[in-house]
Design brief:
The complex is a heterodimer of chains A (511) and B (150). Helices cover 27% and strands 16% of the residues of chain A. Chain A is an alpha/beta fold and 511 residues long. In chain A, the strands form four sheets. Chain A has an eight-stranded mixed sheet with strand order 5-4-8-1-9-10-2-11, sandwiched between helices. Chain A has a four-stranded antiparallel sheet with strand order 13-14-15-16, covered by helices on one side. In chain A, strand 4, helix 5 (113-120) and strand 5 (131-134) form a beta-alpha-beta unit. Chain B has 150 residues and is of the alpha+beta class. The chains are: A alpha/beta (511), B alpha+beta (150).
Chain lengths: 511, 150
C-alpha cells in the first residue's frame, strides 16, 4: 500500500488569500495547518495566467510549448499525456472532481469529451482519470454540477450571476451593494453551492474505494474565480465596509494612472476601456470606473469564498482520516493563476505578468508516514513541477515527456537541483485581430517580461521589476540604464529556457 | 464582425463533392454534433446532439458556381451570420480528379466565431475523409445551368 494523493486546486486565487501567506481577512485554518506541517512555496508561478493553458500544464507536467494550449479556447488534445494515466498505470485509482477545463466550455456542438461526459452525466473515464464529475462557475453548461442543480434545485439557477451577456461576451453587469462587476447576491443554500458540492462528491468517491486502494484525487474548486456570488447566507462573514483596501490598490487616481503609464501601453488602454485584450475580462466594463468600495466588496466576497473552500477541505480531510488514510496522505494545494482584486485599479486577469496573477499559493504537505520537515521555499518553482511531484510521491519514474521536476523540500534542495527560474508566457489572438505575446522569466528576485510584436506592441516594450525592493511592482525598470546588463542577462536566460511553441493550434471557443 | 475560412483539398471530382455539399438535408452526415437535419423550402432545421435546434435560412444554392450559402437565424443569439461553402475544381491530372472545399463564415457576435470556426474545421476535415475514403454516398446534384453567354 502506497501514499494517497489529494491534489486540491482553487481557481484564480491570490498568494495572499490564505493566512499562511500573510492573509489577514479570510480565516483559513485548515490550509494554514497544512502549511505549518508541510512545505510552502513563496515563489510559485503558473506557466500561463489563464485557466486552460495553466490546467494543461498541471495535468501534463509540460510547458505551453509542449502541450500546445497557448490560450483559452485551444483544447488540450484528447491523447495528450496525463499524470493521471501514469498513476493509473501504477495501480492508482484516479479521479477529478470539480473544474477540469482542459477543453472549451462554450460547446453547442458537443465536440469535446468533457462536455459530452457532463451532458450524459456519465463519470468518465477521461484523460487517465477513472472518474470525473465536473463543475464550473455556476449552474450552466454541460457538467455534473449543472445537472445536479437542474434536477434537484432548479429554482436556484437564476440566483447565480449570469456570466455571459446577450452577445456571449463576459458580462460586466454590476450588483451587490456597490454595483461592482460580476457581483450578485445569491440566495442559494450553502449546501447546494458548488464548493460544498465538490467536497461532497469527493467524499462520495473516496467512500467507494477499498481501504487498501492507492488513489490520486484532484479536487478542483471553481471559486474564488468570478463571478463573486457566494451564498447570501454567508455574506455576514466579512463586512466589506470594514475592510482595508488591499495594498496593491492605489487610491489616488493620478498616482494610479502614472504607474500604469510607466508600463507597456495595453495596461492603460485596458484601464481606460479602449482595449480588452482577452475574453476573460468583461468586454463592456471600464476599469477606470472601479471605485474603492467596489474593490472592498469584491475582496470581501473572495474572502468569503475562500473561507468556504477551507471549510470544505476540512470536511474532506476529516472523511479521509475516518477511513484510516491520514498517515499516508499527501496533500498538495494550489491554484491555476491569480486575480487583480483591485491591484492597480483592476479586476480579473489578462496579459499582465505581475504578482497579482503570477504569485500563487502552493503548499505540499507530505504524508506524515514519509517524514520530512516543515519548510518555506523561496526559490522559484512552477506548476509544471506538480505532475513530476505526484510521480515522485507514488514512487513512479518521472516520464521523459514531463518538463518539470519534483518540487524541492527546502531551499537547499532547490539549490542542489537547480530551481533557479520559472518562465511564464501569454499569447492571445482575438476575433477582432488584437494580438499580444508576453514572455517572462522570474529569477534572482526579479521578474522580466519581454513583449513580442503584436497589434499593440512593436517588440521593444517590456517590464522589469525588483520583487524585493518593489513588491507591488509599481516601478518598471525596463528602461533603467543601471539595470540594462541585468535585463539583458535575464532575457538571454529566458531565451535559453523558454519552450517555443512550434505551431499555434486553432482556438475553438472563446473559453 | 468575425470572419473565418477553412479549406480542404479532396481527391474527388468537384461534381461528387458538390453533390454532398449542395444537399442541405445531408449536413448531419458530416458536420459534428448534429443528429438530424431536414429542409423545408428554404429553411433548414438541424437538431444538435444536445437536443437544441438550429434554424437556418438557405440563401443561395448556385449549381453553376457550386456555392452553398446559408444563415443561422435561431435560436442562438446571432446578430449576423453567413456561411459559404464553395467547391472549386482543382484537377491537375484528368486521371486523378480533385477539388477544393472552401468554407467561409462571417459572424456576429464575435465569440461565436471561434465556436463555429472550430466546428467547421472539424466538419470540412471529416467530409474530406469520408469522400477520400468513399465512405459517403453520392447522389447526383441538380444539373448545373449553362453559364450565361455574353
Amino acid at each position: 500500500m502506497g501514499r494517497k494523493i489529494l491534489f486540491i486546486t482553487t481557481d484564480q486565487m491570490r498568494y495572499d488569500a490564505i493566512g499562511a501567506n500573510g492573509g489577514t481577512v479570510a480565516r483559513t485554518p485548515v490550509i494554514d495547518q497544512l502549511a505549518a506541517e508541510g512545505v510552502s512555496y513563496d515563489r510559485a508561478a503558473p506557466q500561463n495566467v489563464v485557466c486552460m493553458p495553466s490546467r494543461a500544464t498541471m495535468v501534463t507536467g509540460q510547458h505551453v510549448g509542449h502541450h500546445g494550449v497557448w490560450m483559452n479556447g485551444v483544447p488540450l488534445p484528447e491523447d495528450a499525456p496525463s499524470v493521471a494515466a501514469v498513476l493509473g498505470a501504477a495501480g492508482y485509482r484516479t479521479a477529478l472532481i470539480g473544474k477540469a477545463h482542459f477543453e472549451p466550455l462554450l460547446d453547442p456542438f458537443l465536440r469535446f469529451e468533457e462536455n459530452r461526459i457532463g451532458f450524459s452525466g456519465q463519470p468518465g473515464p477521461h484523460r487517465g482519470f477513472d472518474h470525473m464529475e465536473l463543475a464550473t462557475h455556476g449552474a450552466v453548461g454541460f457538467n455534473h454540477y449543472a445537472n445536479y442543480i437542474r434536477q434537484n434545485h432548479p429554482e436556484t439557477i437564476g440566483g447565480f450571476f449570469q456570466v455571459l451577456d446577450g452577445d456571449l461576451e463576459v458580462s460586466g453587469v454590476g450588483g451587490g451593494d456597490t454595483g461592482a462587476p460580476q457581483v450578485k447576491a445569491n440566495p442559494i443554500e450553502r449546501d447546494w453551492y458548488h464548493t460544498d458540492w465538490v467536497a461532497d462528491r469527493t467524499i462520495a468517491w473516496l467512500d467507494g474505494l477499498a481501504g487498501d486502494d492507492d488513489w490520486f484525487c484532484w479536487m478542483s474548486f471553481p471559486d474564488p474565480h468570478h463571478p463573486w456570488d457566494p451564498p447570501e447566507s454567508e455574506r455576514s462573514r466579512v463586512d466589506w465596509r470594514e475592510l482595508d483596501l488591499p495594498a496593491g490598490y492605489i487610491e489616488d487616481p493620478a498616482e494610479r494612472e502614472a504607474v500604469l503609464d510607466a508600463k507597456p501601453r495595453h495596461w492603460r488602454l485596458w484601464y481606460d476601456g479602449e482595449l480588452v485584450g482577452n475574453y476573460e475580462a468583461p468586454a463592456k466594463w471600464v476599469p477606470a470606473t472601479l471605485t474603492a468600495d467596489q474593490v472592498r466588496e469584491v475582496n470581501a466576497l473572495a474572502h468569503i469564498e475562500n473561507e468556504l473552500i477551507d471549510e470544505a477541505i476540512g470536511r474532506v480531510l476529516a472523511a479521509i482520516a475516518a477511513k484510516g488514510w491520514a498517515d499516508d496522505l499527501d496533500v498538495v494545494f494550489t491554484t491555476d493563476h491569480g486575480e487583480f482584486q483591485g491591484d492597480f485599479g483592476l479586476l480579473f486577469k489578462g496579459p499582465y505578468h505581475v504578482d497579482s496573477l503570477m504569485r500563487l499559493p502552493l503548499i505540499w504537505r507530505p504524508a506524515p508516514s514519509a517524514g520530512g520537515d516543515a519548510a518555506r521555499v523561496s526559490r522559484p518553482v512552477g506548476l509544471v513541477d506538480l505532475a513530476p511531484t505526484f510521480c515522485r510521491i507514488a514512487g513512479v519514474d518521472v516520464p521523459q515527456w514531463m518538463d518539470g521536476s519534483p518540487l524541492p523540500v527546502d531551499d537547499a534542495d532547490a539549490d542542489a537541483r537547480g530551481f533557479e527560474r520559472t518562465t511564464t508566457e501569454w499569447s492571445s489572438r482575438q476575433p477582432d485581430g488584437t494580438e499580444m505575446h508576453l514572455r517572462s522569466i522570474t529569477r534572482d528576485g526579479m521578474v522580466c517580461t519581454a513583449y513580442r510584436p503584436g497589434t499593440v506592441h512593436d517588440g521593444t516594450e517590456g517590464e522589469l521589476y525588483d520583487l524585493a525592493l518593489d513588491p507591488l511592482q509599481r516601478i518598471n525598470l525596463w528602461d533603467d540604464p543601471a539595470r540594462r546588463a541585468l535585463r539583458d542577462d535575464l532575457l538571454a536566460d529566458l531565451a535559453d529556457h523558454l519552450v517555443e511553441l512550434p505551431t499555434e493550434r486553432r482556438a475553438e471557443a472563446p473559453v | 464582425m468575425a470572419s473565418f475560412r477553412t479549406h480542404a483539398r479532396i481527391r474527388r471530382s468537384a461534381d461528387d463533392v458538390w453533390a454532398v455539399v449542395s444537399a442541405g438535408e445531408r449536413i448531419s452526415e458530416w458536420f459534428p454534433g448534429m443528429v438530424s437535419s431536414a429542409v423545408d423550402g428554404d429553411v433548414r432545421t438541424i437538431t444538435l446532439r444536445t437536443g437544441m435546434p438550429l434554424i437556418e435560412q438557405i440563401v443561395n444554392v448556385d449549381h453553376h458556381l457550386r456555392r452553398f450559402q446559408y444563415s443561422v437565424t435561431g435560436p442562438m443569439p446571432m446578430r449576423y451570420h453567413l456561411g459559404t461553402a464553395d467547391v472549386i475544381d482543382d484537377t491537375l491530372d484528368p486521371a486523378e480528379p480533385a477539388c477544393l472545399l472552401v468554407y467561409s463564415t462571417q459572424i456576429e457576435p464575435d465569440p461565436l466565431g471561434f465556436v463555429f470556426d472550430g466546428a467547421i474545421a472539424d466538419a470540412v476535415a471529416n467530409l474530406a475523409r469520408l469522400l477520400d475514403d468513399h465512405a459517403i454516398e453520392i447522389h447526383p446534384a441538380a444539373p448545373a445551368e449553362p453559364a450565361a453567354q455574353d
